[in-house]
Task: structure prediction
Amino acid sequence: MAGTPSDSTARSRLSAAVRRLGDAVAARVSVDRRALAAFRIGLGTLLIVDLLLRSRSFTAFYTDAGVLPLRAFASDYATNNSLHALSGEPWAVGLLFALAGVLALSLAVGYRTRLATVASWLLLVSLHARNPMVLNSGDTLLRMLLFWSVFLPLGARWSVDAVRRADREAGGDGDSPSSSSGGTAVASVATMAVLLQILVMYLTNAVHKFASEPWMSGEAVAYVMQADQFTYLLGAYLAEFTGLLRVFTVLWVALLFASPLLLLLTGLPRAGLASLFVGMHLGMAVTIRVGLFPIIVVVGFIPFLQTPVWDALGRVADRLNLSAPLARWKARSESLARTALSAGPSLPRPAASERLDSLRGSDLGAGLARGRVLFTTVLPYVFLVLILLSSAASVGYAEVPEPADEALDAAEMDQSWQMFAPDPIHTTRWYVAAGTLEDGSERDVFRDAPVTFDRPARAETTYPTSRWRKYLKNVYGADNENHRSYLANYLCGEWNRTHETAVENVTIYQAYERTNPYNGTVEAANRFELIEYDCSGPFVQRD
Result:
């Protein structure tokens, strides 16, 4: 029986509502392809810089001569799968570093973009698994941004792949070079995920800070600035301006709770709010020493810049007479890309249209189509749900089923985003490794300095890098007592390798001082012993 007019009207209204909802969601999760191109360049550059920074402690953190030799790694991290743990020899790990650098460069220029993205993510996961003791929130965010990038068309613009595709189309059917880009913006599960990744980070951190009295009272940043193992550059001077730091604390907490607007707003209003977040993170970059984290976040904000922003930037370039220089630079870049492509080996193979025609209508073609849908839609959707569950679980609002939790652990996707919350760090800490040398004298074998427990003028200068600071913080943790002996063993070996007078034993201390930021009084100060280690004894793996 045919439906009544009222039924048809209800269905049409429902269909219209669904379409409007779909359009609203698409408008909010769409990402301009120019933003994806800039995002790709940023990610590739970050990977290269990250490798260069890690190379400063290459031996210490990633080889058998360092703080986590393979025998200790196999004992403490038996479930970790890492290519970097196949060998502890410097040359083997160095080859993986070099390969990762080549792949990162390939990602930055957009050559074989999808392959470079997948391989870069796999190597990054492997590198992180090799020594979890040196990881921070920036590593987690970079790893997640790279994972979501696997499902994004990062090579659609400003890439070697785009030049190759344009040349193929121009030689085939005469289409314009831009025809393959498929429009200005793209909206998919993957674009939603890469935007939500930033939002989840902020919302989770907001929940942690909401449970913190120092953050909600506006005092947190003033206390953080007293922990001068973190502060540097402008941070060393801002610590005295407690009133200004209170304003920064309130503003930052307000921004965290306003972060849902990053997804609800579109166009220029979204860009304006994103600029406030970017400004705060750039401020972090010149005040507190937290590695690449602020810059990784800044790169993570590039997809939030939608088409109106890029169009506006184009108009600004026109007004500043930059269009001609940009066009010449683009032409030179495309020429260089074509030269590089022509210099590579050329293997005879059928044209793309011939290959597709041979598959069209075949079972293999249908299977490839289904696999493409699974890869670009179903897989990112499943992991997005798991990430949301994991983040909710980290603040006590959900539980992750055990199989899902295992999947997240295997892919290194577990997230918490505490970051100075709920209890902000407000104690200055430094380490002393008092070594007794074979001639009876004492020397701090970590800093190669006289043994002293006095508070250094700047605790930040006692740590070689921010990763060393993170590592030593983790060594101090009660769950990582094994690593105290690994560290002492490394200090013995490194000292004896580089000095004529050998060290016989090492005693590692942590010293600390807590200062009130408002009156400058010292509230607490002490030191305690972490481990006493005999350098001539066997390698110790504590229970």
Observations:
- Confidence is low (pLDDT under 50) at residues 172-181, 346-356.
- The longest strand covers residues 503-515.
- The radius of gyration is 27 Å.
- The CA atoms of residues 4 and 10 lie 10 Å apart.
